[in-house]
């Protein structure tokens, strides 16, 4: 099983740290292990670099883009997508601070969710803490100055 946490990073931080996403990953990894005062400090840092999600907008976009697929189900704000005869399954939940995705099997179902979300915002960062994987849903293009 794969578990992703998706955070919407403030544009200035996303641009500044493009190519150095490992720094974000390490911050979120430390948050999982921190306790006491360190946990409080890391939570404040994460709150500072992330944007609150427009939950209603995301719900509407998911319903519009995926709602007609035969393997799509919506249940109290959580969405499940089963594709390729249940070979690929993913569940997405939207919260104010982050989106979580749990996926099984092949990558088709989670990729469908990622494609919808990348159209919504440009600075979503996906993190899989267990497998130490991370990356932008929509890579930021570096500015070229002439």
Question: How would you characterize this protein structure?
Answer:
With 146 residues, this protein is an alpha+beta fold. Helix content is 40%, strand content 27%. The chain contains five helices and seven strands; from the N terminus they run E-H-H-H-H-E-E-E-E-H-E-E. It has a seven-stranded antiparallel beta sheet with strand order 2-3-4-5-1-6-7, sandwiched between helices. It starts with a strand and ends in a 10-residue tail after the last strand.
Write the layout of secondary structure elements.
Layout: E1 2-8, H1 11-16, H2 21-33, H3 36-49, H4 55-66, E2 72-75, E3 78-83, E4 88-94, E5 99-105, H5 108-120, E6 124-128, E7 133-136
Antiparallel strand pairs: 1-5, 1-6, 2-3, 3-4, 4-5, 6-7
In short, what is this structure?
The chain has 146 residues and is an alpha+beta fold. It has 5 helices and 7 strands; from the N terminus they run βααααββββαββ. Strand 6 and strand 7 (133-136) form a beta hairpin.
Key features of this structure:
single chain, 146 residues, alpha+beta, seven-stranded antiparallel beta sheet, 5 helices, 7 strands, globular, disordered C terminus
